[in-house]
Structures are given as structure tokens and as C-alpha cells.
């Protein structure tokens, strides 16, 4: 347990090495701000506790700061872009640690529809294709699966509308990006828009034909059983962003959309990647 905390550590807490990486990147208190009643490390630990365990804000443990204070910092730093800056800075550090350029030259885009909880808030809809009522997460990631941009919308919004906003954001912030991979949902006029407006090349990666299965015979509880076993074939490049969605589901708060505001959902997605990137830079004991 860190000497900075007068409590027993939770598994979601930052290690000392991770906090040393993160602390300089947080906004510093201004001269007009009130004195801190709770350390910023404990504020971040409380946010990660909610993110990792999926508990409600009002059910934060009593040895962590009050939930109103924690949520206030989450909202404040979402508004001033702190979470996006943290993601960008840590992503650059991890890429350099891997021997790559700090900024990527190619990106992958995809979306994920996810159920939302019956709480207040708008930006909800019905995805008729996937038969899910809730929200849709639009991610742009690099070739390693690290987040470049995110937009959360109602599930009934077509993929191409938020994609244009996301790609323009990526083009402004990351001028090295010149190529994009996407699935067939982005095919058609959107491809021409990407080439003409952004000057990028774009490749639509189609799903492979379902492989033929192999009939396997085995015994179960003394009875013969036949079943078809198919071989899993990852889709070229698209598996990277699918893995990124899988990383998000490891955080229980993101297994379903519980937030009343879509911008808070986006902030928590940034925080999930901040946690993943910190674990790459300074693995927990």
C-alpha cells in the first residue's frame, strides 16, 4: 500500500509508479481554487474504482472521497479536455516504448452498439440491425488498438454521420494519418468524402466467407454427440478495433451504458484507455 493513502489499497488503485506518470499531466490548482480537501490521487483512484467495479456513484466506499466530489472532478476535467489530453500523451509514450513513431500514420474505425440502463438522459435509440436499444460507441484507433477519437451517439444513428466528425478531429490533431481501414458500413459515398476532403486512402475490409465446419464425434455422459466445429478467422485489420472494444468490456462500468450524459460515457472510455496505457508503461506488481 502506498504511503500516500491511509487505507487498505483496492485492486483498481494506481501504483506509485503509475501515479508518478499521471500526476504531472493533471491540471494544477489555480490561485482562486479552494484548498484541496482530498488528494488528487484519491480522486483518480475513486474514478477508477467506479470504472473497474461498475458500482453506482452513490455507492462509493466510505474510505474514498465523497461521490459528489469525485463526479465533479470527472465532469470538470471532461469539459476542459483533460481526459483526451491524458489519452493522447500516454498513447505517444507507449508507442515510443514499442519502438514506433509517437503519432500513427494509419487508423481503423468501427462502432459498437451497447444496451443502456433505464436512467435519465437522452441519446438513446434502437439499432434495428443488431436489435439493441441503447447507444452506439464510435471508435477510431491506431494499428495497435489505442484510442485516437471516440463519439457516443444513440444506437439508431448511422455509422457514417459521427464518423465524419471523428475523422476530421483525427486529421486536425494527427496530420501523419493518411490511411483508414473500415468495414462495409462505411462503403459508398463516404469513401469519396474521405479521399476528397481528408486526402486519405481508404480500404474497406470485407468479412471473409464463413469457413466450412468439420464434423466432430465425441461422447458426452455415455451418449454419442456430433457437432460442427468451425475455425475462427480474424478479419484483417478490423480485429484490432474489435479487440479495443473487448478491452472496454473488461471495465464493468462500460459493459453497459449507465450514464445519463453521452459525454460522460466518452470520458469513461478515455479513462479506460488511460488505465490500459498506464499498465503498459508501469505494470502493476
What's the main sheet like? 6 strands, mixed
CATH superfamily of the domain at 103-260: Ribonuclease H-like superfamily/Ribonuclease H
What proportion of the residues is helical, as a percent range? 25-40%
CATH fold type of the domain at 103-260: Nucleotidyltransferase, domain 5
Shape: globular
**CATH architecture level-2 label of the domain at 103-260:** 2-Layer Sandwich
Give the mean pLDDT: 89
Strand tally:
8
Number of helices: 8
Beta content comes to 15-25%
Radius of gyration: 21 Å
| Weakly predicted, low-confidence segments | none
Provide the CATH top-level class of the domain at 103-260: Alpha Beta
- Structural class from helices and strands? alpha/beta
Note the gap between the termini: 11 Å
Encode the helix/strand succession as letters: HHHHEEEEHEHEEEHH
Question: What does this entry look like structurally?
Answer:
The protein is of the alpha/beta class. It has a domain at 103-260: Ribonuclease H-like superfamily/Ribonuclease H (Nucleotidyltransferase, domain 5, 2-Layer Sandwich), CATH 3.30.420.10. It has 8 helices and 8 strands; from the N terminus they run H-H-H-H-E-E-E-E-H-E-H-E-E-E-H-H. The chain has helices at residues 16-22, 40-53, 67-79, 82-97, 160-173, 189-198, 238-249, 262-281; strands at 106-115, 125-127, 132-141, 147-154, 179-182, 201-204, 214-220, 223-229. Strands 1, 2, 3, 4, 5 and 6 form a 6-stranded mixed sheet that branches. A hairpin with a 4-residue loop joins strand 2 (125-127) and strand 3. Helix 2 packs across helix 3 and helix 4 (82-97) packs parallel to helix 8. The model has no long low-confidence stretch (mean pLDDT 89).
